[in-house]
Design goal:
With about 525 residues, the chain is of the alpha/beta class. The chain folds into 2 domains: about 400 residues, Peptidase S8/S53 domain (Rossmann fold), CATH 3.40.50; about 120 residues, no CATH class. It is built from 15 helices and 13 strands. The strands form 4 sheets. The protein has a 7-stranded parallel β-sheet with strand order 2-3-1-4-5-6-7, sandwiched between helices. Strand 8 and strand 9 form a beta hairpin. The chain is globular and about 70 Å long. It starts with 8 loop residues before the first helix and ends with a helix.
Length: about 525
């Protein structure tokens, strides 16, 4: 899993049926299966049930790529550390972080920020390569022999991934170049009309022109160009990091030793970072100002977004994730949103300790299941609710993505990870319209969007029912999901299954049902 968990453009381009489906209704994630016939979060229905009741503010920590804190639809809901005097260069509240007015970035130094990072697989390969440097690998025995065998497998997987990224990049570049050629030849912006008028210069362009006709049934030209630019930039960053000593770069930019887990106090207060697209979109879903007549309405009404920048373009480091969790807990967050993940891990025990710390302090963690159409019962990703000790963290929710489609064949996002014992339920994650940098709004899709939809509902519940513990809120959301009896298509396959066969609850998140349960209970 990568940080940019929007639907990867080229992956879905090969399936005409996915592209041809109608665009989702605006703000569908707020709608209700009972009142609107759409499996949204039923947040608006929940607020009608709660009318006249008081709420308390709830802080939600957003561990992500950064957030545009002055976005018109977010600036009123960004958390403010009242114990800190802005810009005086002092740690006024003595929490170890200077001028942390809205949160903290664990990816910045005095003047620079980490934008691109290596994959965890690459970091593991480079550690092992250094270990065996200068050794006669033909004469290894015992533990070293076993370790070298594992290293060779890791290296083979890494080399394959580098090659796959290069191939994907070439595909993206082909489409981007084609669009530019259409603009140049027609003298007009790229559109359905200019695509039809374009005269291809070779057989490859003939094929791309036909393909574009299908793509433009589902994507606006502007959205398509934005998706391609994002994918191209992300892959360029990955390729750039393929042969770079990422640890040395980290030391030079941030100033800490990334392998020294004892150091928690590093980073800066530049919350936005070089690319705040993902974190800003996530934050809008959770808590964009409701009823202000601007843009969208977030799910949680009385919420404060704490910005924690720990997720670069590439794989996040366990050290940063753990320290971001601890920062959120120590500074009052009651819910933490984690729309990121990876399939290799270096310091899992350090993250386990932070998750336990959150559990001990009554903080609920919401995590995105991932976008690779994988069965998480078989293939584990990190971070995870399963500790190295074998224990299961009770304050953890794992979320898959669903769509607004009324078709049972399309209601589960085709990219979503799933698991009968590992994914709790599904929540809105396709065509979610939310805040993005430069005071704008865009659609995005991914379990990255289903995660904040769930975090928003959790914050809503903790706001109106503050006596509930984190574990009680998790159990409530589990028991009040909307069941779905029809067969669905297992993501990444053509096989059918019951929702109970690909998730623990076999249902969809439903804020209204959670509220009804609590009101009835009294």
């Amino acid at each position: 899993m990568k940080r940019l968990l929007f639907i990867p453009a080229l992956i879905i381009y090969s399936t005409t049926t996915a592209l041809a489906q109608p665009k989702a209704p605006l703000n569908w994630y707020l709608k209700s299966p009972k009142e609107d016939g759409i499996y949204g979060t039923a947040a608006e229905e929940a607020y009608r049930l709660l009318q006249g009741r008081k709420s308390v503010p709830v802080i939600v920590g957003v561990i992500d790529s950064g957030v545009e804190t002055d976005h018109p639809d977010l600036k009123e809901v960004i958390w403010v550390n009242k114990g800190e005097v802005p810009g005086n260069g002092k740690d006024d509240d003595h929490n170890g972080y200077i001028d942390d007015v809205h949160g903290w970035s664990f990816l910045g130094g005095k003047v620079e920020d980490i934008g691109d990072e290596a994959s965890e697989l690459k970091r593991l390969v480079f550690i092992e390569r250094a270990y065996f440097q200068g050794k006669d690998t033909t004469k290894l025995s015992g533990a070293d022999s076993e370790r070298f065998a594992k290293y060779k497998k890791l290296r083979s997987t890494y080399d394959s991934e580098v090659m796959q990224t290069q191939m994907s990049y070439q595909n993206v570049k082909l489409l981007s170049d084609y669009i530019n050629n259409v603009k140049n030849q027609t003298g007009a912006p790229f559109s359905k009309e200019t695509n039809k008028k374009y005269v291809p210069t070779n057989a490859m362009e003939e094929r791309i022109k036909k393909r574009m006709g299908v793509i433009l049934l589902a994507y606006s030209p502007e959205q398509l160009e934005a998706e391609l630019a994002s994918a191209k930039s992300s892959m360029e960053g990955q390729m750039k990091m393929a042969n770079v000593d990422a640890d040395s770069l980290r030391r030079a930019v941030v100033g800490d030793n990334p392998l020294d887990l004892s150091n928690r106090y590093y980073g800066c207060n530049r919350y936005e970072g070089p690319d705040a697209m993902h974190g800003t979109h996530v934050s809008g879903i959770i808590g964009a100002s409701r009823g202000n007549g601007v843009g969208i309405d977030g799910i949680a009404a009385n919420v404060q977004i704490m910005v924690l920048r720990a997720v670069p373009n590439g794989d996040e480091r366990d050290k940063d994730v753990a320290n971001a969790i601890r920062y959120a807990v120590d500074n009052g967050a009651k819910v933490i949103n984690m729309s990121f993940g990876k399939y290799y891990v270096l310091h899992k025990e350090y993250v386990d300790e932070a998750i336990q710390y959150a559990l001990d302090h009554d903080v609920l963690l919401i995590h995105a299941a991932g976008n690779e159409s994988k069965n998480k019962d078989i293939e584990t990703s990190f971070p995870t609710r399963k500790a190295n000790s074998g224990a299961t963290f009770a304050n953890w929710i794992e979320v898959g993505a669903s769509s607004s489609s009324k078709s049972s064949k399309k209601i589960i996002a085709e990219f979503s990870n799933y698991g009968a014992t590992t994914v709790d339920f599904f929540a809105p994650g396709v065509d979610i319209y939310s805040t993005v940098p430069d005071a704008k709004y865009e659609d995005a899709s991914g379990t990255s969007m289903a995660c904040p939809a769930t975090a928003g509902v959790a914050a809503l519940i903790r706001s109106y029912f503050p006596n509930l513990s984190a574990v009680e809120v998790k159990d409530l959301l589990m028991k009040t999901t909307t069941p779905y009896k029809k067969n669905v298509i297992i993501p990444g396959t053509k096989k059918k299954a019951k929702l109970t066969e690909i998730s623990i609850t076999g249902g969809f998140l439903n804020a209204a049902e959670a509220v009804k349960f609590l009101l009835k209970k009294g």
